[in-house]
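Comment thread on ticket #2218

A.B. wrote:
> Attaching the input chain for the structure job we discussed in standup.
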Amino acid sequence: MSDSPAARLQALFEGHRLTPTQRRIAHWMVRRAADVPFLSSVELAELAGVSQPSVTRFAVSLGFDGYPGLRKYLREVAPAESAAAGASEFNEYQQAVHAEIENLRHLAGLLADPEPVERAGRLLASSRPLPVLGLRAASSQARGFAYFAAKVHPDVRLLDEGGSMLVDRVDGAVRAGATVLLCFALPRHPKEVVEALAYAR
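C.D. wrote:
> Ran it. Output below, let me know if you need it in another format.
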């Protein structure tokens, strides 16, 4: 037990004077010790009920440059037990599959509270029209979503081509009443996606 991910996290926090907010973050990190190395700062902030900058300040208070440094450290010294075992027992393809399994376990944990998904569904349903953006590698995901969404939504507009027309199509959706844009992006997302999202905001 003393060498468990939770115990190693507790040891990391010892000797640091933490604020109430930071203690809250630490508490959630210990509770989700197996998942923490895979959480983004935004996800951890949502779990702990604090702001994302609070997570960044917490990482700095522990002596790291920021949250990415803390997460890198956790992946090296406090990995989930199954991930640690997989590193020595499985080849690189199996390790990739096991990493995705861990991601799905993390997703299952987040879905214990269905309210964020339901809230997102209400936002998407209320936007008339509903523009769905997906360029290049992400176009097939966007196209698949748009196909099924159109079965229950009266006006879904697929934005799967970049170039000068993309801004015009975003403008057209807004003029028609769109209040939400759903974006699919895969690494490495094209610069056009970032620019389109900034423009849509």
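A.B. wrote:
> Thanks. Noting for the ticket: Residues 92-110 form the longest helix (19 residues).
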